[in-house]
């Protein structure tokens, strides 16, 4: 499954610190093998972290003022002492100001949920400038959103806070230690702000994370075959290894293409098919055996994640596909 680069990069801080699960690591590393931009982003992040940890050496040499008179020397010492004291007060005040944190108000935080590939990630973005957030985990599936000021001129990769979990199935979640834990339908994730508390059903997060996403049109190859009995078969084949496709009938003459990751099989083996049984040019036979007359405007609608495509039944009858899609 091709995950969004933004979701993968959101997991990098935890990945570098070794806090992500083995399954999350596999998804991240599979994505890195295919995405050069994310590999470079991760390398830059690691390099900057190493540089921040290196001590800065002050090479400025201090020379004594041996030839100054005692009175002049006293003035210099007093001036230098005052400057040092002033710098100390400024530095101490900065630490007190920028070092403190507080529980954020809900109106100052924008929360979004990314859920796919079995991983649900909650992202908390600050609405105010020069602020950063942190999600502090507590007991009983509780997190508190903490806000603080960003230090001026300090390099900050991301002011957002994140909470994520990996679901094995609709009843099981993987813990930080890699152990699977069961959860019940009534369990919730509690998010604490200064002004209110919000709850999210863990079961709903699992459903969103485990739901097979709608396929992107660029990741699907569509083919068409028509036999001498008037049956037209549309084939949908994944462009990605280890991904299978499924066709969902979502309405009259309307289908949706979903994908799911199974890690097995070649793309040609993991295709999905949709058939139209023509009796003649203007009539089709439905799945229940009844016949339906076609109008000149009738089309088959195919829905992808990024676009919707329409194919007229007259094109299907002729055994041709629109655009640059090749006939199978």
TrEMBL record:
Membrane-crossing residue ranges in chain numbering: 76-98
Keyword Transmembrane helix: yes
Xref: Pfam families: zf-HC2
Keywords, alphabetical: Membrane, Transmembrane, Transmembrane helix
Putative zinc-finger domain residues: 5-39
Keyword match Disulfide bond: no
Family: Belongs to the zinc-associated anti-sigma factor (ZAS) superfamily. Anti-sigma-W factor family.
Identification of the protein by name: Anti-sigma-W factor RsiW
């Amino acid at each position: 499954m091709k995950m969004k680069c933004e979701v993968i990069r959101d997991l990098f801080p935890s990945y570098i610190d070794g806090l992500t699960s083995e399954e999350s690591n596999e998804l991240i590393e599979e994505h890195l093998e295919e995405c050069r931009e994310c590999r470079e982003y991760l390398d830059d992040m690691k390099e900057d972290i190493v540089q921040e940890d290196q001590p800065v050496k002050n090479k400025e040499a201090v020379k004594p003022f041996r030839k100054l008179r005692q009175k002049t020397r006293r003035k210099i010492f007093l001036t230098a002492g005052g400057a040092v004291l002033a710098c100390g007060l400024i530095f101490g005040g900065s630490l007190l100001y920028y070092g403190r944190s507080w529980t954020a108000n809900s109106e100052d935080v924008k929360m979004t949920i990314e859920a796919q590939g079995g991983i649900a990630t909650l992202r908390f973005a600050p609405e105010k400038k020069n602020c950063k957030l942190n999600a502090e985990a507590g007991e009983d599936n509780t997190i508190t959103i903490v806000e603080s000021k960003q230090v001026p001129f300090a390099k900050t990769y991301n002011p957002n806070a994140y909470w994520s979990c990996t679901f094995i199935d609709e009843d099981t979640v993987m813990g930080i230690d890699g152990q699977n834990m069961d959860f019940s339908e009534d369990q919730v994730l509690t998010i604490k702000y200064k002004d209110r508390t919000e709850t999210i059903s863990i079961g709903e997060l699992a459903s969103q994370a485990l739901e097979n996403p709608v396929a992107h049109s660029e990741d699907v190859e569509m083919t068409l075959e028509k036999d001498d009995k008037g049956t037209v078969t549309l084939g949908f084949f994944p462009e990605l290894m280890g991904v299978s496709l499924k066709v969902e009938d979502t309405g009259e003459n309307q289908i949706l293409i979903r994908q799911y990751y199974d890690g097995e099989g070649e793309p040609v083996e993991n295709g999905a098919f949709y058939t139209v049984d023509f009796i003649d040019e203007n009539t089709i036979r439905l799945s229940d055996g009844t016949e339906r007359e076609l109008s000149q405007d009738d089309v088959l609608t195919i829905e992808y994640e990024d676009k919707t495509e329409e194919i007229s039944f007259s094109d299907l009858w002729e055994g041709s596909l629109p655009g640059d899609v090749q006939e199978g």
